[in-house]
Design brief:
Elements: H1 2-14, E1 23-29, E2 37-38, E3 44-45, H2 47-58, E4 61-67, H3 70-79, E5 84-88, H4 92-95, E6 98-100, E7 110-115, H5 116-121, E8 137-140, H6 147-153, H7 156-161, E9 163-165, H8 168-176, E10 182-186, H9 187-197, E11 203-211, E12 216-220, H10 226-241, H11 244-253
Parallel strand pairs: 1-4, 8-9, 8-10
Antiparallel strand pairs: 2-3, 5-12, 6-12, 7-10, 7-11
Helix pairs in contact: 2-10
């Protein structure tokens, strides 16, 4: 039965104009506020989830939400077991297995958060200024944080002190306990998570912008056609032009 469902999904996405075919799309979510999260009433929402769901409904598709950590979501997309992954940065190795919508939504900034003690000790303005220090950095597995971060990854001594996790909450807790000096996260996501964890008095956002490139929506090449991706991109542009996307953002960023 599961195989049959996947075949039906694949057929409807690879041939989205097929008369009578049901379009069912799997969309990833995780606890990543304000972009993706479980709301107080138990429903799943967030900027990225609501935006993608609105576009997919416009295209006549039923949305099947799947909770996945980031690294696993990329693997599922590659294998064709996940159809749509929002908030994805385009990289050559990902273009092998995924189509990309193009940068349409407003770019988000990844910034460096530090404990108050670390911020006082290292008042830096760029990530690479920490290269020759004993700074202990936390980051999520398989997340792209820009060129400066990639340089630090190639520094053996710095890399040895880094902590990687699929769960950002564990990194925040390590930072709060003094086991890390800093964590990279989206500026909005980081601030909301720190409040939720009760760590906003111990950890502060810094002026260090690690990356500010625009993310895209990625689609598995094994289950989605290039023509469907173009239709999605066109519908998303309409959503932005008509103000729907701005209203979604305002709803979550004003919480």
């Amino acid at each position: 039965m599961r195989l049959l469902l996947r075949l039906l999904i694949g057929a409807s996405l690879l041939a989205p104009g097929l008369a009578g075919a049901a379009c069912v799309v799997s969309l990833r979510w995780d606890n990543d506020p304000p972009y993706s999260m479980q709301l107080a009433d138990g429903a799943i929402g967030g900027i990225s989830v609501d935006s993608a769901r609105t576009v997919l409904h416009e295209l006549g598709c039923e949305v099947h939400l799947v909770r996945l950590p980031w690294a696993r979501a990329l693997r599922e997309l590659e294998q064709g077991r996940l159809d749509v992954l929002t908030g994805t940065f385009r990289k050559p190795e990902r273009e092998v297995y995924a189509y990309f919508s193009g940068v349409i939504e407003e770019p988000a900034r990844n910034i460096l958060f530090m404990s108050r003690q670390a911020a006082a000790r290292w008042p830096v303005t760029e990530l690479l200024q920490l290269r020759d220090t004993p700074f202990r950095l936390g980051a999520q597995i398989d997340v792209s944080y820009g060129p400066g971060y990639q340089v630090l990854l190639q520094e053996p001594a710095f890399h040895e002190r880094m902590e990687f996790s699929a769960n950002r909450a564990s990194l925040w807790r390590m930072l709060g306990k003094g086991r890390l000096d800093g964590v990279i996260a989206d500026e909005h996501t980081g601030q909301q998570e720190l409040v939720a964890l009760g760590l906003s008095e111990l950890i502060r956002a810094t002026p260090v912008v690690v990356s500010s490139e625009g993310a895209e929506v990625a689609f598995s090449k094994k289950s989605v056609s290039a023509e469907f991706v173009q239709r999605y991109a066109d519908a998303l542009r309409r959503q932005i032009a008509e103000g729907h996307y701005a209203r979604i953002r305002a709803r979550y960023l004003q919480r």
